[in-house]
Write a structure and sequence with these properties.
eight-stranded mixed β-sheet, 10 helices, 8 strands, 14% strand
């Protein structure tokens, strides 16, 4: 008999839209489905770290609906960003109990961007909180994170939805959750700096991200743009969008996770 296929969950970037990842995880949890490993980019890395540290989808929802920006934003106006990111890392260290990527369950791989070299950096070992902070360091807003020889910023610059990284790490099957990108002709209101940056990423990566997402075996795309993205009070709506999107694909998802069924996606 052949070895069982490895199933990876690729959680994409998308800022505040990341609450939708929680809804997707709720559906997986309800059906008893758990990936062999997770690959996260930006907010996907943050959610992946919390999930792997043992927070249930219900706990993630409670956290998402009660957490305020003041809990994780520390405005400092440094030379490289207006937010240092240290407070975010502190919150993540607390919630993950300072665990390492390789010790999470499921293990987490994190995609970040080396801003000096213009290259992708993938972390599979080391402190989960530091890696997630680096992966979500939006250029121009969060200060970059120095890790060894790398100066790191948001992984969305190089791989918004980390399907290719999941494959490279040995996944036989990949379920991807994509929180963007904008559709041609679609109007999405811009209300503050976070919106400007996030939608700039969407516009720049629209074609490339769409091509890469097609390489996933199952692609879940929550309709996050239909939920007001600027207020934490809308977390419940984004979570529901994730639940709805995953529920619509549940038969495909169950087949993907079935270890006894050959996959022909």
């Amino acid at each position: 008999m052949g070895s069982k296929p490895k199933v990876a969950l690729a959680l994409g970037a998308g800022g505040i839209y990341g609450y939708a990842h929680i809804g997707v995880l709720q559906v997986l949890e309800e059906y008893g489905l758990r990936p062999d490993f997770v690959v996260g980019c930006s907010i996907g890395a943050v959610i992946g770290a919390l999930y792997g540290a043992g927070l249930s989808s219900g706990q993630l929802e409670t956290l998402g609906t009660h957490l305020r920006r003041s809990h994780w934003l520390d405005v400092t106006m440094t030379r490289m960003g207006v937010v240092s990111g240290q407070r975010l890392e502190g919150v993540l260290r607390l919630l993950t109990r300072d665990r390492r990527l390789e010790d999470l369950t499921p293990p987490l791989a994190v995609v970040a961007t080396d801003i000096e070299r213009g290259s992708k950096v993938v972390f599979t070992r080391g402190p989960a909180a530091r890696a997630a902070r680096a992966s979500s360091a939006i250029p121009g807003i969060f200060s970059p994170v120095r890790l060894g020889e790398h100066l790191l910023v948001d992984g969305a610059l190089v791989e918004r939805v980390p399907v290719d990284t999941a494959r490279a790490l040995g996944a036989d099957r990949v379920m991807a959750v994509a929180l963007g990108t904008m559709r041609d002709g679609e109007r999405v209101p811009v209300r503050h700096l976070f919106d400007v940056v996030n939608q700039s990423f969407d516009i720049m990566q629209r074609a490339l991200a769409a091509e890469r997402m097609l390489r996933a075996d199952v692609l879940v795309e929550p309709l996050a743009y239909e939920v007001h993205r600027t207020s934490p009070a809308q977390a419940s709506g984004l979570i529901e969008a994730g639940r709805n999107a995953a529920t619509e694909k549940i038969e495909e998802i169950k087949l993907l996770f079935s270890r006894e069924v050959a996959w022909h996606g």
